[in-house]
Amino acid sequence: MRNIFYNSFTLFPLVSFGKSTEASSVKSKHFMLSPLLGYFKENNTKKLFLFPLFSAKSTDSSFKFNVLYFLYRQKNTPKSIKISALWPLCEYEKSDSVKRFRFAPIYWYKKTDSTLLSSIQPLYYYNKTPKNKTFIFAWFLYRHDNEIGISKSNSILWKVYNKNKYQNGDYETRFLHLVYANVHKDGKVEKSIFPIYHKVNKANGEKSLSVLFGFYNHYRQYKPDIQDFYEEERLFWILRLRSNYNQLKQAGKAGNLRRGK
Question: Is 129 in contact with 114 (CB distance < 8 Å)?
Answer without folding.
Answer: yes
